[in-house]
Write a structure and sequence with these properties.
FliL; alpha+beta; Flagellar protein FliL; 178 residues; membrane; four-stranded antiparallel β-sheet; Tetrahydropterin Synthase, Chain A
Length: 178
């Protein structure tokens, strides 16, 4: 009688292991099929822009020369090497402000241009920041306005020197006011 119980338990264990292996195989095959579908789906049909650009010969039109503004290419970030520290007047007393800045640029050419002109960018930022008021910098709207003024000034300075705006956004990564 003990042998019959052992045989029944062994057969049940084998069936559950086999079922588990089948379920795992089905899940893996389904996951592989889903990954293939998401990665390689979409045919070789031309995009709507390529269809519109076709010149009637069945060949797509040649790509236009890339504009040299700040909105072309992969977004890259250039950190200023040191925080910008400056004094601003306030209603009660003067305040000391420290801002860490990063610049968002598009493409490696703009990244190199921004790195080349870091002293010019730092000087421009310091000039814009130090002309602000502590009472304005306490509010979120004041910080946004300061960031926009900084962007306009940096783009203007770089356009004069590098021939293009180079910087798409000025980002404050740290803002301390004492």
């Amino acid at each position: 009688m003990a042998e019959e119980e052992l045989q029944i338990e062994e057969e049940g264990g084998k069936k559950s292991k086999l079922m588990l292996i089948i379920i795992i195989a089905v899940v893996l095959i389904g996951g592989g099929a889903a990954a293939y579908f998401f990665l390689f789906a979409g045919g070789d049909e031309p995009t709507a822009a390529e269809q519109l650009a076709a010149d009637g010969t069945g060949q797509p039109a040649p790509a236009a020369a890339a504009p040299t503004n700040a909105s072309v290419g992969t977004a890259l970030y250039v950190a200023m090497p040191r925080p910008i520290v400056f004094n601003v007047p306030g209603s009660g007393r003067d305040r000391l402000v420290q801002i860490k800045v990063q610049l968002m640029v598009r493409g490696s050419d703009n990244e190199e241009a921004a790195k080349t002109h870091i002293p010019l960018i730092e000087g421009t930022l310091l000039q814009v920041f130090s002309s602000s008021n502590a009472d304005d910098l306490v509010t979120e709207a004041g910080k946004i306005e300061l960031r926009e003024n900084a962007l306009e000034s940096v783009q203007s300075a770089l356009k004069d020197i590098a021939g293009s705006e180079v910087v798409e956004r000025v980002l404050f990564t740290d803002f301390v006011m004492q």
